[in-house]
Amino acid sequence: MEKTGVLYAGKAKTVHTTADKDLMVLEFRNDTSAFDGERIELLDNKGRVNNLFNGFVMEKLQEAGIETHFVRLLSDHESLVRNLKMLTVECVVRNRAAGSLVRRLGVVEGMELNPPIFEFFLKNDELHDPMINDAHILTFGWATLEQIAEMKVLTLRVNEVLKKLFADGDLILVDYKLEFGVFDGRVVLGDEFSPDGCRLWDAKTMEKMDKDRFRQGLGDVVESYMEVGRRIGVQF
């Protein structure tokens, strides 16, 4: 698929237009950022690892009946995706207490959350992605009531599929974020699913295997991503 221009360049990915208005090329770069882009580094092989990881997970979700924007892998660093009209909210599910939840509520890190906690956040780096609720989304027109309901249903369905997938690899899916868009009037999963956007812990040692390794200076970031991928069946 030939690229015709750059639509958007984010902190770690670039979106390219194509001759088909319904299709785009998603390029995964080696850039790694934290703290709303305040810290950025290049990590060798990260773009390739996240691209292959994301393609594998998206295919697993599609097999489970969850519609995503992913079409197919184009190369080690690029995927063909559908052109969604993205909604400006992030959906977060928490199965264990970690990160901002611990800081906000003073609960113990690692505490099991039953039922899982669902949260909405506004996608806005300048405001540090503030937490919002249904009323904010409706009042400011970020999504309709029907789209809100669909995002909640889809995000929790993803949880059912991926908790088992990672558990089979002796991993705990601690929390994750998803982004959705609209394609032909339907709410469809977009963006990516990789260790950049979720927390994954080793089920036996509780070792962090995700982007917290970068945030907390633990090292072996890409190596940990690859280990997670191998455990669930990703072919690198």
TrEMBL record:
Name the record gives this protein? Phosphoribosylaminoimidazole-succinocarboxamide synthase
EC no. given is 6.3.2.6
Can you give the residue ranges of the SAICAR synthetase/ADE2 N-terminal domain?
7-231
Top enzyme class of this protein? ligase
Keyword Phosphoprotein found: no
Q: Which stretches are transmembrane?
A: none
Alphabetized, the UniProt keywords read: ATP-binding, Ligase, Nucleotide-binding, Purine biosynthesis
Membership in a protein family: Belongs to the SAICAR synthetase family.
PANTHER family reported for this sequence:
MULTIFUNCTIONAL PROTEIN ADE2 (PTHR43599), SI:DKEY-6E2.2 (PTHR43599:SF3)
What's the encoding gene here?
Answer: purC
Pathway(s): Purine metabolism; IMP biosynthesis via de novo pathway; 5-amino-1-(5-phospho-D-ribosyl)imidazole-4-carboxamide from 5-amino-1-(5-phospho-D-ribosyl)imidazole-4-carboxylate: step 1/2
One GO location term (cellular component):
cytosol
What organism does the record attribute this protein to? Reinekea forsetii
A GO BP entry is:
cobalamin biosynthetic process
Any Pfam family the entry gives: SAICAR_synt
Which InterPro entries does the record associate with it?
A: SAICAR_synt/ADE2_N, SAICAR_synt_PurC, SAICAR_synth, SAICAR_synthetase, SAICAR_synthetase_CS
Print the organism lineage. Answer: Bacteria, Pseudomonadati, Pseudomonadota, Gammaproteobacteria, Oceanospirillales
In terms of superkingdom, the source organism counts as Bacteria
Indicate whether Hydrolase appears among the record's keywords.
no
Q: Which reaction does it catalyse?
A: 5-amino-1-(5-phospho-D-ribosyl)imidazole-4-carboxylate + L-aspartate + ATP = (2S)-2-[5-amino-1-(5-phospho-beta-D-ribosyl)imidazole-4-carboxamido]succinate + ADP + phosphate + 2 H(+)
Q: Which GO terms describe its molecular function?
A: ATP binding; phosphoribosylaminoimidazolesuccinocarboxamide synthase activity
